[in-house]
């Protein structure tokens, strides 16, 4: 096991020396180092720092790192310094939304305007691409994640907040998909401004968060569920203690202490090569309830953690948030029932529906489509909000906001908890 605190410390030291050399070169009128020259110089600095560390350990009577440990530390420091290699320019481009890699030289980039274009290779070979992913997996997140023949699947969060998913050996060539986190520090007002929400839905959701309603955000892949979840979380008062539970750290609410000073982020831990040490999402949700949460936020529900999460919502943890994949706001209830059937509790459908009715207050459905009437622009927008009203053999609900002429949600039916929302500033235009 590599000491991640050492990687962080040495990365800072090497970075400081690298910056000092840049300043010296500039003062002496020398040309700036090329990217490759800078990497070579950094490797020399890393060796220097590790050699100093080894001498210091010997001087203190401790055992210095082994050759293998030094090599691992060096790889980690280099990865921390230079990000993701040739992918870095794409991650730095604010217009890039998605990066799909089907082997090192088959790269496709999706842009915010809906275009998808072929791009230059991101590595010299598939082996180099796998090595890059392995380094990222070792030093991203809270614990090292293997990516090899025995562990051919990987999900992690990159330093800039983007989500990476990779597979190998189950495809002819290694395949990688990166979902950019273009809007990290995002608010509901930003989503109103870009057309994702109408001003009225913005006021409605602001009041729902303030009134501590439990919200489930649904939609297809890449519809904008996580972005909306971040925006909703940023409406939570700074004085509340938040616990987030995710498969791979992505929300990053703890990165903005001015908004959320009291955050604990949980990340699922995968089993090691011997099949030991796994900590599941369901276990983390249960653990979160013992950590004095004001609200529990589950990044994405994909399995048996749903039962634990719904139980948490009915045990005084009002104001919880989560996301789920679904094709409509109504389908969410069937999707939850399917996950509950697969859980250890094996809840029958009628029991699951009772649990849903007691736990979820609103389902917010986000849609994504290419709007060819507007020149093929990619649109993301809230098309439906459904209120859960109770249970009578099935979940009873009403679509309080339904799709309008352009697909965006418009007021459709009265809200049963309107008095609570009105106390937090929501006054509907149509009712």
TrEMBL record:
Coiled coil: none annotated. GO terms for molecular function: ATP hydrolysis activity; kinase activity. It comes from the Bacteria. It comes from Nonomuraea cavernae. Residues 124-362 form the Bacterial type II secretion system protein E domain. Keywords: Kinase, Transferase. InterPro entries: P-loop_NTPase, T2SS/T4SS_dom, T4SS_GSP_E_ATPase. Belongs to the GSP E family. This is Protein kinase. PANTHER family: TWITCHING MOTILITY PROTEIN PILT, TYPE II_IV SECRETION SYSTEM ATPASE.
């Amino acid at each position: 096991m590599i000491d991640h605190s050492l990687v962080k410390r040495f990365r800072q030291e090497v970075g400081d020396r690298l910056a000092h050399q840049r300043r010296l070169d500039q003062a002496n009128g020398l040309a700036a180092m090329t990217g490759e020259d800078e990497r070579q110089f950094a490797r020399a600095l890393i060796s220097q720092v590790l050699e100093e560390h080894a001498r210091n350990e010997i001087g203190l009577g401790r055992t210095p790192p082994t050759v293998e440990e030094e090599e691992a530390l060096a790889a980690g420091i280099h990865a921390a310094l230079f990000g993701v290699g040739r992918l870095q320019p794409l991650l730095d481009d604010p217009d890039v939304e998605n990066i799909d890699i089907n082997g090192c030289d088959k790269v496709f980039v999706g842009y915010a305007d809906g275009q998808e274009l072929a791009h230059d290779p991101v590595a010299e070979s598939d082996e180099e691409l796998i090595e890059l992913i392995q380094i990222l997996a070792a030093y991203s997140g809270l614990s090292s994640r293997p990516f090899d023949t025995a562990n051919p699947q990987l999900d992690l969060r990159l330093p800039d907040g983007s989500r990476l998913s990779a597979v190998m050996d189950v495809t002819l060539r290694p395949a990688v998909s990166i979902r950019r986190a273009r809007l990290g520090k995002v608010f509901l007002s930003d989503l109103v401004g870009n057309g994702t929400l109408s001003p009225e839905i913005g006021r409605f959701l602001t009041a729902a968060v303030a009134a501590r309603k439990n919200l489930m955000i649904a939609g297809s892949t890449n519809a904008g569920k996580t972005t909306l979840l971040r925006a909703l979380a940023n409406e939570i008062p700074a004085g509340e203690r938040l616990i987030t539970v995710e498969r791979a750290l992505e929300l990053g609410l703890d990165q903005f202490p001015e908004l959320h000073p009291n955050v604990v982020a949980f990340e699922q831990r995968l089993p090691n090569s011997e099949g030991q040490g796994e900590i599941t999402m369901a276990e983390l949700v249960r653990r979160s309830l013992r950590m004095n949460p004001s609200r529990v936020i589950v990044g994405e529900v994909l399995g048996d953690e749903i039962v634990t999460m719904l139980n948490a919502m009915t045990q005084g943890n009002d104001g919880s948030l989560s996301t789920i994949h679904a094709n409509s706001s109504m389908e969410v209830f069937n999707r939850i029932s399917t996950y509950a059937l697969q859980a250890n509790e094996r809840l029958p459908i009628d029991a699951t529906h009772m649990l849903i009715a007691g736990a979820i207050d609103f389902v917010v459905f986000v849609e994504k489509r290419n709007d060819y009437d507007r020149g093929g622009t990619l649109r993301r927008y809230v098309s439906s909000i459904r209120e859960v009203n109770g249970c009578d053999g099935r979940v009873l609900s009403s679509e309080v906001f339904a799709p309008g002429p352009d697909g965006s949600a418009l007021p459709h039916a009265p809200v049963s908890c309107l008095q609570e929302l009105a106390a937090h500033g929501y006054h509907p235009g149509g009712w």
